[in-house]
Specification:
The chain is mainly α. It has 17 helices and no strands. Helix 5 packs antiparallel against helix 15 and helix 6 runs antiparallel to helix 14. The longest helix is centred in the last third of the chain and has 39 residues. The radius of gyration is 20 Å and the shape is globular.
Length: 418
């Protein structure tokens, strides 16, 4: 226990709250990452690729989960063991790189958040028929209140766990009702019947939507705020980082099965104004549509919380003044996101595509810097921790794939401007 009292951040947390608080902190970090990933874009991508690829999309989901684990294992382990946020580590190994990474995260997170705000409005519209702009304003206020409560830590953790479990439970109900061909999906998870190019595009797209941009850092930054950093917590960091991806993967699989049951039933979703809503309506009628509204709203508002919290966490370490005014900065971030949505003439779908493209660009920058920390600076920045070589190799392979994703993302951004 003596080594647990040597660090500055873990000391006040462990003696005061004990094992229960640690469990809550771990769950909060895990669900912050998972619910940040499960947003409107996540739902849109899953619906689109299921409609296009059918049961073969199971293969893309399986591969993406494996790559996501490789990325997240490295990002969380470097941040967790060093007990430092990503931007501070980046500045240590390459002066100025942390500011660049923070700027990319905040800019990408802001655009992503506009899409999330739009998603909350669409969710309330599907749920109770509320005007999308009014729904977006109300949802932004809800997110601000959740993040501004006095006991932010405990409240945030509980809310995210509840929202995450709610989304999975409601989607599972629709998946059961739609009666998908589970056996066929399992078979095509290893023997897909689709063009390799289509499967590859689907795979890299959903990887960017799961661990791209700010998302993979969300839980890692939360983890060290909970006092769970340092080499002595490697096993907990590893377990929670992998579990977070598995939670996201479960939601992806359940949503995929819910939509697959509709697709194999002969319903064409691609011509519908809102394919995701149409799938839920076809599966469970009016009840399904209302459930879709609940799921979309929960996904969107939890992503608003994750994007705002994590984006601001990338700048507060640069100045004590910023750290003192963190709550106001988060509120302003949500307010700016809402303002852009209210005055923007762009469709929510375009904003979501733009956000996904930017996430694809950000991922290799941050991952590359953190892998460099693990490879060259473990003695100074990781407290002498011996970083596993196999994990570096796996991370390097994942990084190479993210570079290719970034090139494709840049092409997608160019197409949007045209």
């Amino acid at each position: 226990m003596s080594d647990q009292t040597s660090g500055s951040s873990p000391t006040p947390v462990r003696p005061r709250f004990g094992r229960v608080a640690l469990s809550s902190g771990l769950l909060g970090a895990m669900f912050l990452m998972a619910t940040s990933a499960i947003g409107p874009g996540f739902i849109t991508q899953t619906t689109t690729f299921t409609a296009q690829l059918g049961a073969a999309f199971a293969f893309a989901i399986l591969i993406s989960i494996l790559v996501d684990i490789a990325v997240q294992l490295n990002v969380w382990r470097v941040i967790g063991v060093s007990n430092m946020r990503a931007q501070d580590l980046a500045n240590k190994v390459l002066p100025g790189a942390g500011y660049l990474l923070a700027a990319l995260i905040v800019f990408g997170g802001l655009i992503f958040n506009v899409g999330n705000i739009a998603g909350t409005g669409l969710g309330l519209d599907a749920m109770i028929g509320l005007d999308t702009r009014v729904g977006a304003i109300l949802s932004a206020l809800v997110a601000i209140v959740i993040l501004a409560v006095k006991r932010l830590g405990a409240a945030l953790d509980r809310v995210l766990v509840i929202l995450g479990l709610l989304m999975i439970a409601l989607t599972l109900y629709v998946a059961v009702v739609s009666r998908p061909p589970v056996g066929e999906a399992l078979r095509q998870a290893v023997l897909p019947e689709a063009a390799a190019s289509d499967l590859f595009l689907a795979t890299i797209t959903i990887i960017g939507g799961t661990v791209g941009g700010y998302i993979t850092y969300a839980g890692a930054h939360r983890l060290i705020e909970q006092g769970r950093g340092g080499p002595e917590n490697v096993s907990a960091i590893t377990r929670v980082s992998v579990t977070g991806i598995i939670v996201t993967g479960i939601m992806r699989v359940v949503l995929f099965l819910a939509i697959l049951g509709v697709v194999v039933g002969g319903v064409s979703l691609m011509d519908a104004p809102n394919p995701s809503a149409e799938a839920f309506y076809q599966a469970a009628g009016e009840v399904g549509l209302r459930l879709f509204g609940v799921i979309l709203w929960a996904a969107a508002v939890s992503s608003v919380i994750g994007a705002s919290y994590t984006s601001i966490s990338f700048v507060t370490t640069f100045s004590p003044w910023l750290e003192r005014h963190k709550g106001k900065l988060v509120t302003a971030f949500i307010g700016i996101s809402l303002g852009i949505f209210l005055i923007s003439g762009q469709a929510p779908g375009t904003l979501l595509v733009m956000a996904g493209a930017l996430n694809g660009v950000i991922l290799p920058v941050g991952l590359g810097l953190l892998l460099w920390v693990a490879y060259r600076h473990s003695a100074t920045l990781l407290g002498g921790y011996r970083y596993p070589r196999w994990l570096l190799v796996v991370g390097g392979l994942a990084w190479a794939l993210t570079v290719y994703m970034a090139v494709r993302s840049l092409g997608g951004i160019a197409e949007l401007w045209q």
